[in-house]
Design a protein that fits this description.
- By secondary structure, the protein is an all-alpha fold.
- It has one domain.
- The longest helix has 48 residues.
- The chain is elongated and about 45 Å long.
- Keywords: Membrane, Transmembrane, Transmembrane helix.
């Protein structure tokens, strides 16, 4: 899973750099990583409840 997330964030970071520049891309990719982590946690909690 970590490898997949790393590849994802790498592509997204490059993608974001084209739009917001290198400085903001780091912050934006961090926010995306946090959102992904929260989403994964929520999904895990939902599947545990069933």
């Amino acid at each position: 899973m970590d490898v997949l997330v790393t590849q994802l964030s790498l592509k997204e970071t490059l993608f974001l750099q084209m739009f917001v520049g290198p400085d903001n891309a780091l912050a934006a990719s961090f926010i995306i990583m946090m959102c992904l982590a929260i989403t994964m946690l929520v999904e895990k909690i939902k599947s545990d409840e069933k």
